[in-house]
Amino acid sequence: MQWTLVIPLKPLMRAKSRLAPTAGDALRPGLALAFAQDTVAAARACAAVGDVVVVTDDARAGRELRALGARIVPDSPQAGLNAALAHGEASVRSVHPGTPVVALNADLPALRSVELARVLASAAAFPRAFLPDAAGIGTTLLSAAVGTELLPAFGAASRARHTASGAVELPLGGVDSVRQDVDTGDDLRAALALGVGPHTAKATAGLLLVD
To answer: Is the pTM of this model over 0.85?
Structure first.
């Protein structure tokens, strides 16, 4: 089975605001782009992924992520994360109605293709499934089988909301890179400890991580 991944990315100037105390506003947009680049590159390298769609209105991000093989869909709703994901899902299924769809966070700079493949293999057994983030409160991945709506409920406490919506929580072991999203300085330290991709490594070179 091959999945189509839908990755939402807000305009870089507004992305990752909680990293400002760690990296400053000048570096924050570049970090957000680097995270997305490493996420897309790892996803494209995963054998279980047939296509990667990024929902964004950011021209710079669109150019850079298209160069990595992503398909760019404008964020027409401009109504937040879940609306962007639903729009991306609709765009995918209007052309390929028989494809299973996965919503994936754009801030997984340590993402490993082999771990993503492991998660997707587990998700294939369920109509809808999700993976909690490293903090155990949010969600980094939500899947929907063919003929099943994604019904994204990302945001604060989304682990509980996705459970309540009937999505099955996937096994947590051995897939740390798929769970380690980056919102804060501590998250970035954890991702760096796992080993980040080349774009994030370059963007964080020489960065003094202080809170």
So the answer is: yes
